Amino acid sequence: MRVAIAGAGAVGRSIAGELLENGHEILLIDKTPSAISVERVPRAEWLLADACEITSLDEAALQRCHVVIAATGDDKVNLVVSLLAKTEYGVPRVVSRVNNPKNEWLFNESWGVDVAVSTPRLMSALVEEAVSVGDLVRLLRFSQGDANLVELTLPPESTLAGIRVGDVRWPEDTSLVTIIRGSRVLTPSPEEALEPGDELLFVAAQAQEERLEELLSARHGPEHRPSAGREDGPRNT
After folding, report:
1. Average pLDDT, the chain
2. What is the pLDDT of residue 227?
3. Quick one: pLDDT at residue 131?
4. Where are the domains of the chain?
5. Which candidate, 123, 181, 119, 173, places its Cα nearest to that of 148?
6. Residue 215 CB: number of other CB atoms within 10 A?
7. Name one GO molecular function term (predicted).
8. CATH no., domain 131-215
9. Of 131, 66, 121, 137, which Cα lies nearest the Cα of 95?
């Protein structure tokens, strides 16, 4: 996969190193000569250019990229790069760094951003995740579809403990994508039973977050509990 990264500072170089280790083709773009440190990421391609200029992006052959990452320290630059990548070059996936949380509302599909990553928000979310059991924590916002990556640790007293994933009536527009159980990362099959202490990661519509938190807490009412049988009839045993 070909990935272009606008911004060759510490953040951009770190991302480039990780992606190169995973076998991807990386192009680093920066307009500051001192930022062009080929020896730090020797396996990447480097381009000394202004990523906000169409001529620079033409030179970078951005239309061949599968992903563009706007990783500069300037939110205005990241927004312009994202918009150009999406509208002028049709890049399928645009990820943008949000430096100032006050600007986060701008980083959406109107500016070509598929995923906005706010470091302050992510750090605070990870702190909350470490100390919160039974409370929903928003980890990442996806601009398209108004969906978020959220995490909730199943409390010991939850009535869903011991219930199989396929027997839970999850809220509309939510998808359980991963169960973290101790050191294990589990794909949530319908037959997998939930256990107290499970860290559950969902992609969920923002409008459903409150209902999802209520469902997984110990306080939800009987209308949310799994039914004795599946809606399509009793299970054969």
Report:
1. 84
2. 45
3. 46
4. 1-117, 131-215
5. 173
6. 23
7. monoatomic cation transmembrane transporter activity
8. 3.30.70.1450
9. 66
Would you list the DSSP string of 48-108? ES-TTSHHHHHHTTGGG-SEEEE--S-HHHHHHHHHHHHHTT--SEEEEEESSGGGGGG-S
With CA atoms as reference, report the closest residue to 202 among 181, 176, 169: 176
Rounded distance between C-alpha atoms, residue 26 and residue 77, angstroms: 20
Cα dihedral 178, 93, 18, 123 in deg (nearest 10)? -60
**SS in 3 state form for 156-222?**
CCCCCCCCEHHHCCCCCCEEEEEEEECCEEECCCCCCECCCCCEEEEEEEHHHHHHHHHHHCCCCCH
Torsion of CA 203, 205, 210, 213, to 10 degrees: -10
Tokens of 33: 């000569």
Contact 225/162 with Cβ under 8 angstroms?
A: no
**Domain 1-117, CATH:** 3.40.50.720
| 63's tokens | 């239309």
pLDDT at 80 over 60: yes
Q: Tell me: pLDDT of 223 over 50.
A: no
pTM for the full model? 0.61
**93-98 and 25-30: which strand pairing?**
unpaired
Q: Which token pair is 29?
A: 């773009």
The amino acid at residue 85 is A
Q: What is residue 230's predicted lDDT score, i.e. its pLDDT? A: 39
